[in-house]
Design a protein that fits this description.
The complex is a heterodimer. Chain A has 16 helices and no strands. By secondary structure, chain A is mostly helical. In chain A, helix 2 runs antiparallel to helix 16 and helix 14 packs antiparallel against helix 15. Classes of the chains: A mainly alpha, B mainly alpha.
Amino acid sequence: MNNGTAKVEYVSYLQHKGKFKGLFSWIFATDHKRIALLYLYAIATFFFIGAILGLMMRFELIAPGETIMKPQTYNGVFTVHGIIMIFMVVIPGLSAVFGNFFLPILIGAKDVAFPKLNLFSWWIFIFGSILAVASQFLRTGPPDTGWTFYAPYSTSTGTSVIMATTAAFVLGFSSILTGLNFIVTIHRMRAPGMKFFSMPLFPWSIYATAWIQLLATPIVGITLLMLIAERLFGIGFFNPELGGDPVLFQHLFWIYSHPAVYIMILPAMGVITEIIPTFCQRKVYGYKAIAFSSIAIAGVGFLVWGHHMYTSGMSENARWFFSLLTFIVAVPSAIKVFNWLATMYKGSIDIKPPFLFALSFIFLFLIGGLTGLLLGSVATNIQVHDTSFVVAHFHYIIFGGMGFAFFAAIHYWLPKMYGKMYNFRRATIAWAIIFVGFNLLYFPQFIIGIQGMPRRYFDYLPQFQPAQVISTIGGIILISGFILMVYNLVMGVRKGAPAPANPWGGSTLEWQIPSPPPVENFDEAPVIKQNPYDYK
Amino acid sequence: MSETETHLEEHRDDEASKLGMWLFIFTELLLFGGLFLVYSIYRAQYPANFHEASLELSVTIGAINTIVLLFSSMTIAMALTAMQKGNKKLTLRLIAVTLLMAVVFLVNKYFEWGAKFEHGLYPGSDLMPLLERGHLLYFSLYFFMTGLHALHIIIGMILLLVVYFKVKNGSIHIERFVLLENGALYWHLVDLIWIFLFPLLYLIT
């Protein structure tokens, strides 16, 4: 193992034999790479449960009136769809899977700072997820508040809100511990010679994200605890009948939940920033601007929560101020987009599946971002507030953004993670189906949203039916695209050709080690002398 | 032993452990920060009610508990110094005193809460909804904040118990005491939060 000249026999983390065998060698593993795969399998499962619930909603909305379920069931379905997708898929998604797997490798470390805590976070995540899913099956019925748990409805409805909020609290705790672990890892474990400004940009985005996880999550934690206490003991913090203030709940909730949007999108931007230089063989344009814009988004993201509450009763000054701050977030986001485009300029562009997903990310993120401006300004917000326009907007950002970045990341890094290649042709077809299905599903909702179709409604006026039918068809296309994509990836992992160490000609550290990586990532600690994006 | 385990053993970074603890302490402060925010809003909304309700609390009991906690913070700090000087016996004694103080605090709290319960003042009682709105919110906050704080005392006690037995069996020693240091940091946090709760609930009237 010590002589690094000849082709050394190495043990990959997949074959490595630890203290335990079989399943236990995974669920008790402290190796960050194995934990990343545990998260991947768990999150992929939850994603499909959430997607099926989403499809059920689409079928319900294919015609006015009752189609396949009762109104109360519909309320339960959209609530649980939201809880699963937000708390169990998109918030942990990129940072828990790819952050865990690639953050230590990208900074030249052997593991995260606290490997046992890392495993513990996964266990808490699974425990919280079980609680969330179990809230479905209690006798009191699934929670019907929407994933936002707005008081005072959530304190008075008879459904199993306590179970669901406890689940969100537990999942938040897992998120805090993951963020804490990453911050310490980045501060203490960078390879010799790697300064903060010679770190690749995905770790930068994970770093900004980790601070939001750490600083925002406790606030929703205490809010959910207050809500639980209110339900259990009839305390009146958020109940106007008992002297409390329901708008206070919204403030506390969005102080976390708006920054949570950036927990979802920042790592996604980080992934895109890794993919674009590799497939254009270009040095990333404006390295420092991208690094700082991550921090700026994280910082300003704490100050914009009020834009969810223009119609809840706020002072005129608060409204224009929140509107202004919301517009300011667009600046660092746009810096990133322009830098990606500038990186592509005069690059030798190699159109492969990860790059296609990255490009569609930019496209969908732009639509999501520009419609966000309509929601961020008070006047237009009041027109489209709580309509399906909002639904379309946040699906473009969260799903078109975080989701597509996730697909891009899995296509980009799968050869490294498993040491196997997938079929490019099938991946490209799957991408095309997903892209078309996505736009067909969500774009019509912008239009009917402006026309006045409210969100969360079980029934609607007949004039909205054509758009709803198109949406539902889009949903079916989207699901079939997923099935093809997952089939292709699974087949790749099981039967694909062995992947070379550096299939895309990348220059960051993960491509300098064999695929799949050895147990301790690096046989010798790498010494960093140049910038991470060492192209022409 | 496999390679992973050996590298876990080899890899030791006390600075990282301390940084991790400090970050965790930030999150705890923010958790209570949310409650302080709610407190300040309702205090501003119902100043007269808050004034009247806060007179119900016994400043004496609160003050005793403050002293008890400050004393325990001192003993745990001394335990750390004793460990740094390699005096295991003294360390164990000082941790035990700290734990004893924590018990005294909880017993005191038990009597304080018990007195309120006897008057029918507790969340979910029949009396509470009949109170004026500001009174109701004040007592709800009082029970929620001191209850959450007491829960943190218990968590801190469990942590210090683990530390105690690790010192006893020698896995925390003069060369390696970061867990004791982190336990002490957590204990100071619990103390610090009380230092804010005491004036907010008992002293400002």
